[in-house]
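Minutes, project huddle
Topic: does the predicted pose make sense with (2S)-2-hydroxybutanedioic acid bound?
PN asked that the exact inputs be recorded in the minutes so nobody has to dig through chat later. Recorded below.
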Amino acid sequence: MFGNLQILPPDPILGVTAAFRRDPSPNKVDLGVGVYRDEFGNTPVPAAVREAERALIAEQSTKVYVGPAGNLEFNERIVELALGSLAAQLKDRTATIQTVGGCGALRMGAELLHAAAPDSVVHVSDPTWANHEPLLGNSGIALQRYPYYEPKTRSVAFDRMLDHLQRLPAGAVVLLHGCCHNPSGVDLSLGQWDAVADVLDQRGLVPFVDLAYQGFGDDIETDAAGLRLLAGRLPTLLLAISCSKNFGLYRERAGAFAIIAEDAATARAIATHQARTGRRMYSMPPDHGAAIAARVLGDAQLRQAWQDEVAAMVARMKKLRALLADRLSARRPDVDFSWLTRQRGMFSLLGLEPAAISALCSEEHVFMPPDGRINLAGVSDANVDRVADSIVRVLGRG
Ligand code: LMR
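Predicted holo structure (tokens), as shared on screen:
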């Protein structure tokens, strides 16, 4: 039955982790998969998350099913984290389901779109996270790209983006990265969000916001400002939330998918479709991660401690951006590396030719996905000179 299946190429991002593990070099550096790392290269569980987890385990008396929508407290609190005070205002118009991480949220959104409006097209940024197109497209929904990144200036290709959006037909869905654009690290300014909101509104376009890095750009509130601007103005909005990075809950697969609908009656109907979609794919989401996040968010002290830990992570990533830019500039004063410090979140694109990127992995033992995206959190005081030497050695290759 399966004899005709051929071995597939490795996943562009997860394959980097496997290649890194296989490399016997003692000096290898992993700038691949988007996980936060501390100065020792570890991905710690935030202390507030650990504390909430300990309390949960101590209190848990049953493992009975949580129900198709998942943990309702989690759903409410995570949407409140994303939308701030708007959440209460939009509560009746919001239908939320706990999902299998942020990926599950994106997929849930695509499945619902495909069921409700099978002809709709989701427009994703060019470039976008390597798994966006496979993950959304596998639902059967059609995908197209809109211009987003300008490699020459290493900033948002805003005029081209806006011009493109202005030509889309009513009902087109536009996937926007809430903050910390993956892979480019370039985000819309608030003024640009405002202009995008105008176009979406005028053209009858539907935003689908992927919020996977809230708190990793500047802080929890600032990183959600664009999303909140859209949510306050547009009749319909889709929102995918991940707790993988900011709560450090990666393997627990905690996330949520929400739709803000035009009215409360539509939201109530959507909730039934969310539940049925989940039931048909995996029945119901896992409990543990979402229960932890709900507990952290519901306890003022834990919440503050967690926010302080997120703030420390982002401060470290900003410091590493400056450090790498500095070490690169010291080696090549003729080349501008200031873009590293202007960009946000974990990622930036090196902007090198494929031959240079492949040499970084195979000759220099510095690993990254084939698009040349680097995870800044993989840089450390201990390896920054080695990373800078390697990048400088392959500059101009290809
Ligand atoms: C990444 O972009 O590296 C992360 O979101 C992890 C993943 O699943 O690709």
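Observations noted during the meeting:
- Residues 13, 33-34, 129, 131, 182 surround (2S)-2-hydroxybutanedioic acid (CB under 6 Å).
- The chain is about 45% helix and 15% strand.
No decisions taken; revisit at the next huddle.
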